[in-house]
Design a protein that fits this description.
This protein has 171 residues and is mainly α. Helices cover 45% and strands 0% of the residues.
Length: 171
């Protein structure tokens, strides 16, 4: 039983043949001489094949991308922030009537994110649209509440009833 000259890990990639430069002849591996065959050292077993510079000539690959694959644009965080602030604004409106404090940044970040989507820098325009819609709905509901309170307090009977001390019959 014979041992190989050098040990190779099964995880090592296979050795690739050297690619000749254009205009050079590829190196031929040495062929063992057999006594019963005449071997012409000048003859090549295979004709030399020119190697193309690119597999698909005329269409260069983008720098850093594997062949045949272009990385999608990364999501920007503005769309996510817009949606989060929009949902938070609705919650704050119904819990303590200060939803407009989160709705205004939701609308601003939503519009900035939609601009990034139009320029091709992001791909989450749906999240931004959700933040814009919830932000404007919250601003609209806040205005309805403020107008309703102004109308109620402009009525003298309501204002007197609201500010008068309440007495109970329980003593």
């Amino acid at each position: 039983m014979t041992q190989p000259d050098e040990w190779k890990s099964p995880y090592d990639p296979p050795k690739q043949p050297d690619v000749p430069q254009p205009g050079q002849q590829p190196e031929q591996p040495e062929q063992p001489q057999q006594p019963d065959q005449q071997w012409d050292q000048q003859a090549q077993p295979y004709p030399a094949q020119p190697y193309p510079a690119q597999p698909y000539a005329g269409r260069p690959y983008p720098y850093g991308a594997p062949y045949g694959y272009v990385a999608p644009p990364e999501k920007n965080a503005l769309g996510v922030w817009s949606l989060v602030l929009g949902i938070l604004s609705v919650f704050l409106l119904f819990s303590c009537l200060v939803g407009f404090l989160a709705a205004i940044p939701a609308v601003i970040t939503g519009h900035l994110s939609r601009k990034a989507v139009r320029e091709g820098q992001a791909d989450n325009g749906g999240l931004a649209l959700g933040g814009i819609i919830t932000g404007w709905v919250t601003i609209g509901l806040t205005l309805v509440v403020v107008v309703g309170l102004v109308v109620l307090f402009s009525n003298p009977e309501f204002r007197e009833g609201f500010f008068s001390p309440q007495y109970s019959d329980y003593e």
